[in-house]
Write a structure and sequence with these properties.
The complex is a heterodimer.
Chain A (H helix, E strand, L loop, with lengths): L4 H22 L11 E7 L6 H20 L8 E7 L4 H13 L3 E6 L3 H14 L3 E3 L14 E3 L4 H15 L4 E7 L2 H16 L3 E8 L7 H9 L4 E5 L2 H13 L6 E3 L6 H7 L7 E4 L8 H14 L5 H20 L3 H10 L3 E3 L3 E3 L1 E2 L4 E2 L5 E6 L2 E4 L7
Parallel strand pairs in A: 1-2, 1-3, 3-4, 4-5, 6-7, 6-8, 8-9
Antiparallel strand pairs in A: 10-15, 11-12, 13-14, 15-16
Helix pairs in contact in A: 2-11, 3-4, 5-6, 8-9, 11-12
Chain B lengths: L1 H31 L6 H18 L4 H24 L8 H22 L14 E4 L2 E4 H23 L1 H11 L1 H6 L4 H27 L7 H15 L4 H22 L4 H15 L31 H17 L3 H26 L8 H17 L4 H20 L7 H21 L1 H4 L12 E2 L2 E2 L3 H24 L1 H11 L1 H6 L4 H27 L9 H14 L4 H17 L7 H15 L9
Antiparallel strand pairs in B: 1-2, 3-4
Helix pairs in contact in B: 1-5, 1-8, 1-9, 1-10, 2-3, 2-4, 2-8, 2-9, 3-8, 4-24, 5-6, 5-8, 6-8, 9-10, 9-11, 10-11, 11-16, 12-18, 13-18, 13-21, 13-22, 13-23, 14-15, 14-16, 14-21, 15-21, 18-21, 19-21, 22-23
Classes of the chains: A alpha/beta, B mainly alpha.
Chain lengths: 388, 607
C-alpha cells in the first residue's frame, strides 16, 4: 500500500507529540523536597479574549508574593505560584485542574476567571481535595461546588444593594435605566439590583443586556432615552463601561450615571476620556484612600508598575494574601490551607478591610464601600452633592 | 415616531462602519473565492499602527492614514505571499485554513507587543456634532461614510475602467482562462490583497478612533460582522457589500428597537439565513448571472488516503485502551479524554463536510444542543444520566437536521456561511430562552456520568468511557461509509448535478448525514456537560466551530481515522506548547500554517 513520505513524517510527528505530552505530564512529579517553595497553582487567561484580566492578576500576585516572601514566606519556606494559561476555556481549565491535583507540590489553586471555566474544574478539585479559590467568581453557585470551593469575590447580594443605595438614597434617583453585561455575573447582578432598587422605592424603567463583545450602544441608548429615566446604572466592566459612558455623552443623555465597582480602573478613565467625568461608583478603595493597608498597596503598586491599581489587581493581590495567610495558620498542606481559611480572622485586605470567611458559605461578608465620583479624570471621594 | 427615525439613522451609522470591513472581504472573495479569516486581524493591525502614529509619533491625520494604508497594504501582500500563493495549486479549503492560522499568529503578535489590555486611540477628527431627529451625528461619522463610499466608488471604477481592474475581474471569473490570456494572476492577487488589507487597516484605525478603544481581541467579531455584511450584499460584489452593511446595521438597530439589546445579533443572523435561502447570490444578483462556481468536487481535494491495515487499527485501539495502565498521569488522561470528545465532534463534521461536502462552520451549536438537552433532562426531570446522554444524541440529530435543512439547497461557501449563522442563532436562542435554558446564568449542578450507579470520577474512568463511546461511533461511521449510503454521500460531494440526475434525492441524503453527524456531536456535548457539571451559553462558542473544522481538515476530509488523529493533534498541541507560556498560541498558529503548507490534504488524506 502506498504511503507517501510526507504522510509518514506527519504521522510520526503526531505520535511524537503524544509521547512528549505524556513525558511532560510525568516529569513534574518527582522533585527534591528540601527548602522547596510552597507552591500555589493559578489557572487563568494569559492568551485569548480575556488575556487582559490574567495580566492584571499577575501584577497583583507578584506584588503580594514579594511582600509575603519578604516577611519570611510560609513557615520559613518561600511562596511561589505556577500560572497555567487556560484562555478561560473550560476544556483547558479541566486539563489544568488534573495537572494541579496530580502534582503533590501544589497545595492550593487560585482561579479560573469566567464561570464556565472555573465551575467545570470544580468537581476535579473537590474530589481531589485541593482548594479552588475563585476570587472573581461571583456566580451564586460557585461555592456550592463543594467544601474545597471558596471565594473572596464580593457577593453580588452584597454589592448590588450598595449600588442601589448610592443611586436611590444618596443621589435621589427614582426612575432608573439599567445596562448590564449579559453574562452570568451581569445577569445575577442586575436581578439583585432591580430588587434592591425597588425596595428602596425606585422604579427600573428599562433594563438592557448587552454581549461582552459589543462596541456600539447607539440604538440601545435610544431605548434608554425613550424610557425617560432620571438616572442610568451601568453593570459593566471597565472597558465596556467606558464605551457606554462615551456614547451616553454623544447621545446627549445627561442623566447622572452610577456604575458598579468593577469599572474601578485607570483604564476606565483612559478609555472614557472626558465622558466619564461625573460618573458615580461605590468602589472598595480609591487612590487617596487613608486606610494604611490600602495606602501601602496603592503606593507600592504605583512604584512598581508606574500606574494606579484597578479592581482586578486588588482582587488578585488580596487573594494571594488570603490563601497565604490560611497556609500559615493551617500549614502548607492541601487540607491545611482549606482548614486555615476557616480559621483566619481579620486578615488585612484592600477589598474587605478585614477579611474573615463565613465557613458555611465559604465567602467573605462585609466589604466596605466608598462613594466615589469621577472628577477631572480622577476617582475622587463624592462630596455629597446630589447632581454634578 | 421620532425613535423610528433615530433608529434608522443609528442603523446607517453602524452599517457605515461595517461597510469598510465588508468591502475588503468582498474584494478578496470576488477574486480569490476565499473567506479571509485574517481580515479581522489586519483590521486590528491597522488600529495599532494608528496607535503608534497618533500616540507615539504624534502624526497628523493624513500622515496617520497614509501610515496605516501603507503598513496594512504591505501586510496584505505578505499574507498573500506567505500564506496563500504556495497553496494556489492545492485544495480550495487549504487557503481558508491558512487564513485562520495567519489570524492566530497576527493576533498573538499584536497581543505580545502591545499587551492584551484595551487602549485608547484618540480621535484626530474634531468632535463636531449635529443633531438629526433625536440623535447626534459626528464629524467622524461623516469621515467614515466618506471614506467608505469613496473607496467603494474608486474600487468600482478601478474594476471597470483600468487594465489591472479588468485583469482582476477576469481572474475572478476564471483563473485558468485569465492565465491563458496572459494575465499575471499572482500580480492580480497581490494587488487585491494589498487593496483589501489597506481598506481593512483603515477601518481598524477609524473604528478605533470612533470608540476611542482598540484591543487585540476585537479581530474575531470584526471578521464575523464583515462576513455577514458581505454575504447580505452578495459575496464578491463590492457595491453590494456597502448596501449589505447598511442593511445589516439597520436590521440590528430595528431589532434592538423591537425586542431589546440582547436580540441584536439574533436579528443579524436571521437576516443572513433568510438572504441565503431566498437569494443566495445576494440581494443584487441579477437572474442572468451565472451561478457561482460549483464548489463541490473542487472544494474537497481528491487524494490517496493513508490506509492502515485492520490489524494495525485493532492494535492501536488496544494500545489506546491499555494506555491508562501505563500512563497514570491524570493530566495526560484528561487531555486525551478531551481529545476523544473532540474526535466525536470531528467525526460528525468530517461526515457532513468531508463526505457530503457541506462544510459547516457552526458545529459547536450541535455540542450546545446536546449539552443542554442532556443537562436539563438530568437536572430538571431527573432522568438517569446515561439515558439523558442517549436522548441528547437523538434530539441533537433531529434538531440539528431541522435547523440546517434550509441550507440543504445551498452549495460551497454558502453552506459554510449559513451554518455559521445557524450556529450563532442557536447560541443566542440559548441565551434568550431563559425559562428553559436559564439564560446567561447557565445550568449548574449537572450530575456526573454513572455506570450501574457508580459515578465516573477518576481520570482513567473518564478516559475509558469517552474512548469507548468514540470508538463505537467511529466504527458505526466507518460501517456507514463502506455501505452504499457512503457511496451515495460521496457522489453528492463529487457532483451533485450528476448525483441528482441518477435519481438521488439530495436533501434526503444530506438529512441522513446531518442526522448521524448530529447524533455523534450531541453525544459529545452531552458527555462534556456531565463532566463539567456547569455549562452556559459561552461553554460551546464559535471558536469551537473553527476548531472542529481545523480538526477535520488537518486529519483529512471525510477520513474517520483522520478526525481522531486531527483531534489528538489539535487538543494536544496547545497543551504541549504550555511550557512556552504566552507564546503557545503563536506557536500553535505557526504549526497550523506549516501543516497546511506541507500537507494540505490533511494528515491522513481525503477519503
Amino acid at each position: 500500500m502506498p504511503i507517501t513520505r510526507r504522510a509518514a513524517v506527519a504521522g510520526l510527528t503526531a505520535a511524537l507529540s503524544l509521547a512528549s505530552l505524556a513525558a511532560a505530564g510525568l516529569g513534574t512529579a518527582p522533585l527534591a523536597r528540601a527548602a522547596e517553595p510552597v507552591l500555589f497553582g493559578v489557572s487563568g487567561p494569559l492568551t485569548g479574549p480575556n488575556a487582559q484580566y490574567g495580566a492584571q492578576w499577575k501584577q497583583g500576585f507578584d506584588l503580594a508574593l514579594d511582600e509575603i516572601n519578604a516577611a519570611g514566606g510560609i513557615g520559613g519556606r518561600p511562596l511561589a505560584y505556577r500560572f497555567e494559561d487556560s484562555q478561560s476555556d473550560p476544556k483547558q481549565s479541566v486539563a489544568i485542574a488534573q495537572k494541579f491535583v496530580a502534582d503533590p507540590t501544589i497545595v492550593a489553586e487560585l482561579g479560573d476567571f469566567s464561570s464556565p471555566a472555573s465551575m467545570a474544574a470544580t468537581p476535579i478539585y473537590q474530589r481531589a481535595g485541593l482548594l479552588q479559590f475563585g476570587f472573581t467568581n461571583s456566580h451564586p453557585d460557585f461555592t456550592k461546588g463543594g467544601d474545597f470551593a471558596w471565594s473572596s469575590s464580593v457577593s453580588q447580594a452584597e454589592e448590588q444593594p450598595l449600588v442601589a443605595d448610592f443611586a436611590v438614597r444618596s443621589l435621589g434617583l427614582k426612575k432608573l435605566a439599567v445596562l448590564y453585561l449579559n453574562t452570568d455575573w451581569g445577569r445575577t447582578s442586575k436581578d439583585i439590583f432591580v430588587k434592591a432598587a425597588k425596595d428602596f422605592g425606585a422604579d427600573v424603567v428599562v433594563a438592557e443586556g448587552y454581549q461582552p463583545e459589543e462596541k456600539d450602544f447607539r440604538s440601545t441608548l435610544v431605548r434608554v432615552r425613550d424610557a425617560a429615566p432620571d438616572g442610568i446604572v451601568l453593570i459593566s466592566y471597565y472597558a465596556d463601561g467606558a464605551l457606554i459612558a462615551r456614547q451616553l455623552g454623544a447621545a446627549g443623555l445627561k442623566q447622572p450615571a452610577v456604575a458598579v465597582s468593577s469599572v474601578y480602573s485607570p483604564k476606565f478613565l483612559e478609555l472614557g476620556g472626558d465622558f466619564v467625568n461625573g460618573i458615580y461608583t461605590p468602589a472598595r478603595f480609591f487612590p487617596e484612600d487613608p486606610r494604611p493597608h490600602v495606602k501601602k498597596f496603592v503606593e507600592t503598586f504605583k512604584a512598581r508598575y508606574g500606574k494606579e491599581p484597578d479592581a482586578f489587581n486588588a482582587y488578585a493581590y488580596d487573594a494571594l494574601h488570603l490563601v497565604a495567610a490560611a497556609a500559615k495558620v493551617g500549614g502548607p498542606t492541601r487540607t491545611g490551607v482549606r482548614d486555615g481559611l476557616a480559621k483566619i480572622k481579620d486578615v488585612p485586605s484592600v477589598i474587605f478591610e478585614k477579611a474573615t470567611f463565613d465557613a458555611a458559605t465559604r465567602r467573605i461578608a462585609g466589604a466596605p464601600s466608598v462613594k466615589l465620583v469621577v472628577k477631572d479624570g480622577r476617582f475622587t471621594l463624592w462630596d455629597g452633592a446630589k447632581t454634578n | 415616531m421620532t425613535s423610528f427615525l433615530d433608529h434608522t439613522i443609528n442603523g446607517l451609522v453602524v452599517g457605515n462602519i461595517y461597510a469598510l470591513l465588508a468591502v475588503g472581504l468582498a474584494l478578496i472573495f470576488g477574486v480569490s473565492r476565499l473567506i479571509n479569516f485574517a481580515h479581522g486581524s489586519v483590521y486590528v493591525v491597522g488600529a495599532y499602527v494608528g496607535l503608534i502614529a497618533v500616540a507615539h509619533l504624534k502624526l497628523p491625520l493624513p500622515l496617520t492614514i497614509l501610515a496605516v494604508v501603507v503598513g496594512t497594504g504591505a501586510l496584505g501582500i505578505l499574507i498573500e505571499r506567505v500564506g496563500l500563493r504556495p497553496l494556489a495549486h492545492s485544495v480550495r479549503i487549504a487557503p481558508l485554513l491558512a487564513t485562520i492560522g495567519i489570524s492566530f499568529v497576527i493576533d498573538q503578535l499584536i497581543q505580545l507587543t502591545f499587551s492584551p489590555d484595551p487602549q485608547a486611540l484618540p480621535s484626530l477628527v474634531p468632535d463636531w456634532r449635529f443633531t438629526v431627529g433625536g440623535v447626534t451625528v459626528g464629524a467622524l461619522d461623516l469621515v467614515i461614510a466618506g471614506i467608505g463610499v469613496t473607496s467603494a466608488a474608486l474600487l468600482y471604477g478601478f474594476l471597470t475602467f483600468t487594465r489591472l481592474g479588468w485583469a482582476v475581474r477576469a481572474t475572478a471569473q476564471d483563473r485558468d482562462a485569465a492565465r491563458q490570456m496572459g494575465v499575471d494572476v499572482d500580480a492580480v492577487n497581490r494587488a487585491v490583497f494589498a487593496i483589501a488589507s489597506a481598506l481593512g487597516g483603515l477601518s481598524g484605525l477609524l473604528v478605533g478612533m470612533y470608540y476611542n478603544y482598540i484591543s487585540p481581541a476585537m479581530s474575531f467579531q470584526a471578521t464575523l460582522k464583515g462576513i455577514v455584511a458581505e454575504v447580505v450584499g452578495g459575496v464578491g460584489n463590492v457595491p453590494g457589500a456597502v448596501v449589505g452593511s447598511l442593511l445589516l446595521g439597520l436590521t440590528e438597530s430595528y431589532g434592538i428597537a423591537l425586542l431589546g439589546t440582547t436580540y441584536r445579533n439574533l436579528f443579524a443572523f436571521v437576516l443572513l439565513v433568510l438572504i441565503l435561502v431566498l437569494k443566495p447570490n445576494g440581494l443584487f444578483a441579477s437572474n442572468r448571472q451565472l451561478p457561482p462556481e460549483p464548489m463541490t468536487g473542487t472544494f474537497v481535494a481528491p487524494s490517496r488516503p493513508l490506509k492502515l491495515p485492520a490489524s494495525a487499527l485493532a492494535g492501536l485501539t488496544v494500545a489506546a485502551f491499555a494506555l491508562p495502565l501505563v500512563v497514570t498521569t491524570p493530566y495526560v488522561l484528561q487531555t486525551l479524554s478531551n481529545a476523544w470528545l473532540y474526535a466525536m465532534l470531528g467525526l460528525s463534521l468530517t461526515l457532513v463536510a468531508g463526505t457530503v461536502g457541506q462544510v459547516s462552520l457552526g458545529h459547536a451549536a450541535l455540542l450546545a444542543i446536546g449539552g443542554y438537552v442532556s443537562a436539563l433532562l438530568a437536572v430538571d426531570l431527573g432522568l438517569p444520566v446515561m439515558l439523558a446522554i442517549l436522548a441528547a444524541g437523538l434530539a441533537t440529530g433531529a434538531i440539528g437536521t431541522v435547523l440546517v435543512s434550509p441550507a440543504f439547497r445551498l452549495r460551497g461557501h454558502y453552506v459554510s456561511i449559513a451554518t455559521l449563522a445557524i450556529g450563532e442563532i442557536v447560541g443566542l436562542v440559548i441565551l434568550n430562552w431563559e425559562s428553559v435554558t436559564r439564560g446567561p446564568i447557565g445550568v449548574s449542578g449537572i450530575p456526573p456520568i454513572e455506570i450501574a450507579g457508580i459515578p465516573l470520577y477518576s481520570a482513567a474512568a473518564t478516559y475509558w468511557f469517552t474512548l469507548a463511546v468514540m470508538v463505537v461511533l467511529a466504527l458505526l461511521q466507518a460501517k456507514l461509509l463502506a455501505s452504499h449510503l457512503g457511496r451515495t454521500l460521496r457522489a453528492i460531494r463529487e457532483d451533485d448535478v450528476a448525483a441528482r440526475s441518477h435519481g438521488i434525492a439530495l436533501s434526503r441524503y444530506k438529512a441522513i448525514a446531518f442526522g448521524f453527524g448530529g447524533f455523534a456531536a450531541g453525544i459529545s456535548g452531552a458527555i462534556t456537560a456531565h463532566l463539567y457539571s456547569y455549562i452556559n451559553h459561552e461553554t460551546f462558542n464559535a471558536q469551537i466551530s473553527i476548531l472542529a473544522l481545523t480538526i477535520v481538515i488537518l486529519g483529512g476530509m471525510g477520513n474517520v481515522l483522520g478526525a481522531i488523529v486531527g483531534s489528538v493533534a489539535l487538543i494536544g498541541l496547545p497543551e504541549l506548547f504550555r511550557i512556552t507560556a504566552e507564546y503557545r498560541i503563536l506557536i500553535y498558529g505557526i504549526a497550523l500554517l506549516l501543516l497546511v503548507r506541507f500537507r494540505p490534504q490533511g494528515l491522513l488524506g481525503t477519503v
